[in-house]
């Protein structure tokens, strides 16, 4: 897997903007984020050795389950139920549940 699996190839101004965004990417910070999440939820997170840290972080976060698990640690009195399926709309629902909980808890 490469970044191109997640981002369409761009051209013109869109390509310039995409390159600027990618230039701000920090692999070390991505790895720190993965370790922080693993420590927060007290679960090991495995990263395939053949993918970039960008791809690893996107893969770990895209379904929204880890967001919900982190929120459950931050707010154990009102745990979020998350959906464990492979449908894109379930991913959106998990992320929406996290965002609602974060707003309710005044985290964001």
Structural class per helix/strand content? mainly alpha
Q: What's the count of strands? A: 0
N→C terminal distance: 32 Å
| Share of residues in helices | 55-70%
Low-confidence stretches: none
Quote the average pLDDT: 89
Shape: globular
Strand content: under 5%
Q: How big is the Rg?
A: 16 Å
Element pattern in H and E: HHHHH
**Biggest β-sheet description:** none
Number of helices: 5
Protein architecture, described:
- The protein has 108 residues and is mainly α.
- Helix content is 58%, strand content 0%.
- The chain is built from 5 helices and no strands.
- It has helices spanning 12-23, 27-41, 53-61, 65-74, 88-104.
- α4 (65-74) runs parallel beside α5.
- The termini are far apart.
Short description:
It contains five helices and no strands. The chain has helices at about 10-25, 25-40, 55-60, 65-75, 90-105.
């Amino acid at each position: 897997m490469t970044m191109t699996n997640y981002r369409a190839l761009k051209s013109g101004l869109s390509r310039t903007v995409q390159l600027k965004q990618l230039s701000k990417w920090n692999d070390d910070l991505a790895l720190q984020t993965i370790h922080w999440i693993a420590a927060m939820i007290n679960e090991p997170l495995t990263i395939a050795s053949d993918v970039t840290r960008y791809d690893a972080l996107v893969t770990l976060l895209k379904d929204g389950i880890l967001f919900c698990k982190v929120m459950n640690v931050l707010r154990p009195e009102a745990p979020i139920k998350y959906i464990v399926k492979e449908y894109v709309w379930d991913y959106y629902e998990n992320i929406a549940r996290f965002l609602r909980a974060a707003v309710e808890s005044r985290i964001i």
